[in-house]
């Protein structure tokens, strides 16, 4: 037996055994890292589907087309206190399983009508005290809805094409007749 080859093989084997525990293939890769949040690819896709369900495409572009989910992530990272942020993340983690329990299918496989009905059934108040997982999912849905509306209404598309924002609306002191066909910006 060649001792040199045996020692070399033993060194390679022990080195690879030391590296093997650091190769964790069980967790999903983080593709979006913010100050406090670390978001995986499946969570990004789920949020895009959810904001698109909340403000769907129609006469105007929907929230998914305007990438409003990025606003939801940033606002959740920057503006929520740590307790609310923890509830938001727990709701995000348990959202899909609760949707499957209530709606019978994955959120991505549902039609728009099924999604709306399932979300309404989850958020609808009940006489019994909801379990903590459902509270977190309700909190997650409400926070997402609030930030989606905020991001959508303040998007460049809405502010320039749908309801143009005028920095100085009209002349000071003059009355103007309101035209019902004219879109006005509620933020002006």
Summarize, please.
Helices cover 56% and strands 4% of the residues.
Describe the protein in words.
This protein is mostly helical and 188 residues long. The chain has one domain (29-162). Helices cover 56% and strands 4% of the residues. It has seven helices and two strands; from the N terminus they run αββαααααα. The protein has helices at 3-19, 41-54, 69-79, 82-103, 112-123, 132-153, 156-162, and strands at residues 30-33, 38-40. A two-stranded antiparallel sheet has the order 1-2. Strand 1 (30-33) and strand 2 form a beta hairpin. Helix 3 packs across helix 6 and helix 4 packs across helix 6. The radius of gyration is 25 Å and the shape is elongated. It starts with a helix and ends in a 26-residue tail after the last helix. The model has no long low-confidence stretch (mean pLDDT 83).
Strand-helix topology:
Blueprint: H1 3-19, E1 30-33, E2 38-40, H2 41-54, H3 69-79, H4 82-103, H5 112-123, H6 132-153, H7 156-162
Antiparallel strand pairs: 1-2
Helix pairs in contact: 3-6, 4-5, 4-6
